[in-house]
Amino acid sequence: MARGETELYFVFMNYDPEYERLLSKRKKKGSYELDLYISKKHDELLANTFEPGSYKKRLSLVIVDGFAVEITDDQADVLRSAKEVRVVDKNQELA
Known about the structure:
By secondary structure, the chain is an alpha+beta fold. It is built from 3 helices and 4 strands; from the N terminus they run E-H-H-E-E-H-E. The longest helix is centred in the middle third of the chain and has 18 residues. The two termini are about 20 Å apart. The mean pLDDT is about 90. This is Subtilisin-like protease SBT2.5.
């Protein structure tokens, strides 16, 4: 892979009491509030960490408080050191 080429990574967040509260509320009343919170939280982390246009968020994973993003290996290393992030894992192609 060429340096600077982006690949798909999955990023999983650390424990977040607000996420847990909204997740339990979601089971009773629906998912809009949780979906909005989680997507905004992931977007803000990326926007505060990287230059606009240097990444492409694919989706937020509400059930696990994570997201998929196209980034470089160097950007993945930067995310690994973010206090909000628990795991950054490169997508593995299944043969």
